[in-house]
Amino acid sequence: MAKNDNPFAQFFPNNDFSKLYEQFQAAPFDLKAIMEAQRKNVQAFTDAQQVAMESIQALAQRQSEIISQMVEDQSSLAKEMMGEGTPESKIAKNADMFKKIYERTVVSMRELSDMISKSNVEASNIINKRVSAGMTELKSALEKKQRQKSGITFLKLQERPPLPAAFLLPGRGEAHDDYHR
User: Fold this and answer.
1) Residue 112 has what pLDDT?
2) Which of 74, 104, 152, 179 stands 20 to 30 A from 114 (CA)?
3) At what angle do helices 31-82 and 87-159 cross, to 10 degrees?
4) Bridge partners of 106?
């Protein structure tokens, strides 16, 4: 039978890897809770992105409506210029028409601005709620782990053997260190 010179073959039989993972059982965080928190984070970002995409679609639709209206306005303005009448009456009509077109354009731009602002507020509210909930979850997990850790420490203190007489204060039977305090 040939001797096995493979260093990995010699390494594995001499080491117990189950002991390596024992230290991770007392990790400061619950892995399931972390995974659930990350799932919720991804869901919040997905929801915020969905709101943003719906807003972009509505914005594009409204912009195309505004452009169509502007083309119609320009067309009617051109027809008025080519129609019959004195130059003074044409200029007066065009001035009124130009004023209406300008006012309608300003209102449309405000509407688009409000749509964008509303979308931003809605998406950021989703993210802000998740960040706040995430911080609350983190705080609760840390407090839970601290309570568990405190309970374990308390049990360990109870299981300690009594102090040798050399550590007791003379005549009082009290420890002169913080061993049992």
Assistant:
1) 94
2) 74
3) 180
4) none
Give me the residues of the chain with pLDDT under 70, please.
Answer: 1-29, 149-181
Backbone angles phi, psi at 176, to 5 degrees: -100, 15
Strand partners of residue 168: 175
| Residue boundaries of the structural domains of the chain | 31-118
Q: What is the DSSP letter of 160?
A: S
First-to-last C-alpha distance (Å) of the chain: 63
Strand partners, 175: 168
d(CA 113, CA 96): 26
Nearest-angstrom CA–CA distance, 50 and 59 = 14
Q: What is the DSSP letter of 163?
A: P
- Can you read off the two tokens belonging to residue 1? 């039978």
Q: How far apart are CA 166 and CA 11, in angstroms?
A: 47
Neighbour count for residue 101 (Cβ, 10 Å):
18
Question: How far apart are alpha carbons 84 and 107 in whole angstroms?
Answer: 31
Please give the pLDDT value at position 154.
Answer: 45
SS3 content of the chain, % helix, strand, coil (to 5): 80, 0, 20
Which tokens belong to 169? 């204060």
